[in-house]
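hey so i finally got around to running the thing on that chain from the lab meeting. sorry it took forever, my laptop kept dying and i had to restart like 3 times. anyway pasting the input first so we r on the same page abt which one it is
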Amino acid sequence: MKSLEEYLALAAQSHGHKCPGQVLGVRMAIVGLKGLGIDDPVQHRQRLLTFVEIDRCATDAVSLVTGCRLGRRSLKYLDFGKVAATFVDLETQRAVRVVARDDARLKARGMFPELSDPYQQQFAAYKVMDEADLFTLQAVRVKLKPED
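ok and heres what got predicted. didnt touch it at all, straight out
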């Protein structure tokens, strides 16, 4: 797996800009893959299925890290309006849901008060914030359709 900075550089290139959502998406995917015990998404690309719950910047980053794509039918979009994703290992049938914590923005403000722009506070904080302060991780069951 690449480093956070390597993924962020690729995400900015692919997405067109750097933003807090890209940081959330990259870290969310890393946490989800780690929760499934997958340390190399490239090697295990065929066994991954990802459900994203928001159609914003984070989704592009999740796709970049996991290799899951709408066109390959390995990325599914569910319009729940949450900064969340569920990662499924089709081989083991294990799944984890990773959700960005609602209080992460407030924590970001407290971590970088010298930055007056909330956008910059979030961008800086999301890169270094502890996983537990940034996300909740939960093992879940996913009932897959036969075509999935």
